[in-house]
Design brief:
Chain lengths: 276, 276
C-alpha cells in the first residue's frame, strides 16, 4: 500500500549529478528507464560529451521528461557576464526540451571582496540573457545557494533575495528551490508561498543535510539520511501550487559517488517514496 | 601615521578562542598586557580553569575591559533548556564585569529534525533566563550563527531573525554580530541599522572567510586573509551607533592555533589596524 503522503512516482527526476562520477548521460538515461524513473535533469558537461542530438534522441526514445538543465550562470566569471556560454546553455536547454535552465549565478569576482558588485553583475547578466531565453522559450531558474557558497559559487543566498531579483527582472524568470540550500531559512515557508503565488517555482531539488557535514561542497546526503524535514518542505512547495518534478541531486564524494550507480538509483526510488 | 580609517586601538579585544589551543586565560591576560591589547573576551571553560576570582584579580591588575563572556546558550541541549548552566554563565559574566554574555543558542534537539521546535525552545530559554540576567545586570547577546551551523550549534541564523526574537523578548536582550556569520546576508546593512537604532548591538566579532574554506568549524581567517569587506562592515556597525569593542575571534585548527601565540597577538594588532 502506498503511503498517502508519498509523492507521485511519476514526478521523481534524476539529477545526473547524483551519479556523475560513475555514469555519463547515456548510461544515466538508460538507468532511469531501468529503474522506472520518468524524468531526468542532465548537466551540461555530460550533455556535451554525449552530443545534444544524440541525447535528444535517447531521451525521446525512453519518453523521459527533462525537468531542468544544469546549469547556466557564473555571471561573475568574466567581464562579459559569461554571456556566450550562457546563450549556449539556453540553446541546449531548448534543444532537449528542458522545463527550465538552472542558474548557479557565481560568487565574487576573482580577487575581489565586493559582494554588492557581484550581485549587480548577476542581475545584469540574467537581464542580458533574458531576450535570448524568451526567444527560445526557455525559463531561467535562479537557484539561491547556501550562504556558505556566497564567495565562490553563488551570491544569491536566500529565496527572498532571489524573488526580489525576479520581480525586477520580469515574469519570465523564476527560482529553483533546493532543500539543501534553503532548509535553514527562518523565512522559508513565507517565501515559498510568495514564489508559488507568483508562479515562479520552476524546479524543486531534494537533498539532505548530513550531521556532521565534513566537506562544504560534496558531503551531501540521500533523502532520509540527514536532518531536513523533507516531507514538510515538499508540503510547502505543493501548497504553493508547484506540481513539477522533484529532482534528487546529491554531491557525495565519499559515499554515493563511490557506489554502484544501479544501487544509487534503487535507493533514490525508495527514499523518494519514504522520505521525500 | 595612522590610517584615518583605522579603528580605535583601545577598542581591540582579544577573544581568547583565537589562542585557545596554546594559552589558558592567565597567559592570555598577560599576553594582552604585553601586546597593548586593552580588552579581552574569555571563554567559560578557560575562566573556570583559572578560577573566577583569580581571573577577576588578574583582569583588574591589567586594567582590561571585558567585552563579553563566551558563551551561554545551547538551550536545546536538554529538556530543562540548559538553564542551570546558563544561570551560572550569567553569574560568571557578572563576576568578571563582562559587557554581555554571548549566547550560542543551540541547534536541533539531538535525534530530531524539528527546526521550528528548536527555535521555540531557544526563545523559551532566553525568556526564562531573562529575570536572572536582569537581576545581575548582565545583558544577553544572541549571536546569529552562519546557516551552516543551524543543525548543530545555532538555529538563529540571520540578524533579522535574532532581532525579531529580541523584539519579542524585550529591551534587555541584544545581538552579537560576528562578521564570519553574517557577511553574506543580503539584508545586512538594513538589519545592522535596525539593531543599532534599537540599541541592541552588544558585541562585534571580527573574523574573515577564507576562500577556499576547508572545514565548517575551524578554518576561519585572520582579518585581511579572506574575502569579507571588514572595513565596510565596521563602518556599518559604527554608523548604527555602536562604539564598543571589536573582538578578534578566530577558530583555526590548521593555522593560528598552531602558531606561537605571541606571534598571533602581534598579527591581530597589525591586522586590526590595517584590515578591520
Amino acid at each position: 500500500m502506498t503511503d498517502p503522503r508519498s509523492p507521485d512516482p511519476a514526478r521523481l527526476s534524476l539529477n545526473t549529478a547524483t551519479i556523475r562520477k560513475q555514469w555519463g548521460l547515456g548510461e544515466a538515461i538508460a538507468g532511469c528507464a531501468r529503474h522506472g524513473i520518468r524524468a531526468i535533469a542532465p548537466w551540461r558537461d555530460q550533455l556535451q560529451a554525449l552530443g545534444v542530438s544524440e541525447a535528444v534522441s535517447r531521451i525521446r526514445d525512453q519518453g523521459l521528461r527533462v525537468s531542468s538543465l544544469c546549469r547556466g550562470g557564473f555571471f561573475t566569471a568574466d567581464d562579459a557576464l559569461n554571456l556566450d556560454d550562457n546563450r549556449l546553455a539556453v540553446d541546449e536547454a531548448a534543444a532537449i526540451g528542458a522545463e527550465c535552465l538552472v542558474l548557479v549565478v557565481g560568487g565574487l569576482v576573482e580577487g575581489t571582496r565586493d559582494l554588492a558588485d557581484a550581485r549587480r553583475r548577476v542581475a545584469d547578466g540574467i537581464a542580458a540573457l533574458g531576450d535570448h531565453a524568451r526567444a527560445q522559450a526557455v525559463r531561467l531558474a535562479i537557484e539561491p545557494l547556501h550562504p556558505m557558497y556566497a564567495a565562490d559559487r553563488g551570491c544569491i543566498n536566500t529565496l527572498r533575495q532571489a524573488l526580489d531579483l525576479c520581480e525586477r527582472l520580469g515574469p519570465d524568470v523564476g527560482v529553483a528551490i533546493d532543500t539543501y540550500h534553503v532548509w535553514w531559512d527562518p523565512e522559508l515557508e513565507v517565501q515559498i508561498a510568495r514564489a508559488g503565488a507568483a508562479g515562479r517555482i520552476l524546479a524543486y531539488h531534494v537533498c539532505d543535510w548530513l550531521q556532521p557535514t565534513e566537506d562544504l561542497l560534496a558531503d551531501r546526503g540521500m533523502p532520509g539520511d540527514g536532518v531536513i524535514e523533507l516531507r514538510r518542505l515538499r508540503g510547502m512547495v505543493e501548497a504553493a501550487g508547484y506540481d513539477g518534478c522533484c529532482e534528487i541531486e546529491i554531491f557525495s564524494e565519499k559515499n554515493w559517488w563511490r557506489r554502484d550507480p544501479d544501487e544509487v538509483l534503487r535507493v533514490c526510488v525508495e527514499r523518494y517514496a519514504s522520505a521525500v
